[in-house]
Specification:
Blueprint lengths: L1 E7 L3 H12 L3 E6 L2 H10 L4 E5 L8 H10 L3 E7 L3 H10 L3 E5 L3 H49 L3 H15 L3 H12 L2
Helix pairs in contact: 5-6, 5-7, 6-7
């Protein structure tokens, strides 16, 4: 099931978008009419897709779209009148928001929704890879700090300290990071 947040003032377009979304898949749809309400909802719930039908009751919706794209893992689509696309598209695209012109052509909206899902999945994958790389970098920093503690307090060379940490990890069947933590706990009090 895909969670979708539709942000649109009341009217025919909102009704047609709701019908379109409900007819095209297993969707849990939430609708709001104001940007302020959408911001509150986004603080408490995560969505797979956000569709913003601009203008909203309290704002145009472009700032909300940019914020949602940067701060959430949601795919974000904003619907803008064709006459305003040129003035808004560059800002939206830079923020990672897909822009669809109004009046909406169903085929283009369908493609935008699929593309938003693909982009969202790719972003999530990249974020997870980034977290793994950051953890690995933190581990390397920890081990290096422990090596320099061994150099300082036990007069080892850097190579000896490195071999010591590797040997302790193998003998104790623990990670080098755990050995480094124990070295730091013993000598950095």
């Amino acid at each position: 099931m895909e969670k979708v947040l539709l942000i649109s003032k009341n009217g025919k377009t909102k009704t047609s978008l709701q019908a379109y979304l409900m007819d095209n898949g297993d969707v849990e749809l939430t609708t709001v009419t104001r940007g302020a309400i959408a911001r509150e909802v986004l603080l408490n719930t995560s969505y797979d897709l956000l569709i913003i039908n601009s203008p909203l009751e309290d704002e145009f919706g472009d700032e909300l779209a940019a914020l949602a794209s940067m701060k959430t893992r949601s795919g974000v689509i904003i619907l803008i009148k064709n006459s305003l696309i040129d003035s808004k598209a560059a800002k939206m695209e830079k923020a990672g928001v897909m822009v669809v012109g109004k009046p909406v052509i169903r085929g283009i909206l369908s493609q935008a929704i699929k593309f938003a899902q693909v982009a969202k999945n790719r972003i999530i994958t990249l974020q997870e890879e980034n977290i793994k790389l950051q953890d690995r970098l933190d581990q390397i920093k920890l081990i290096n700090r422990a090596k320099w503690v061994l150099v300082k307090y036990l007069n080892m060379t850097e190579d000896q300290a490195h071999k010591y940490i590797e040997q302790q990890a193998m003998e104790r069947r623990i990670s080098k990071g755990m050995v480094a933590r124990k070295v730091l706990a013993a000598y950095e009090q």
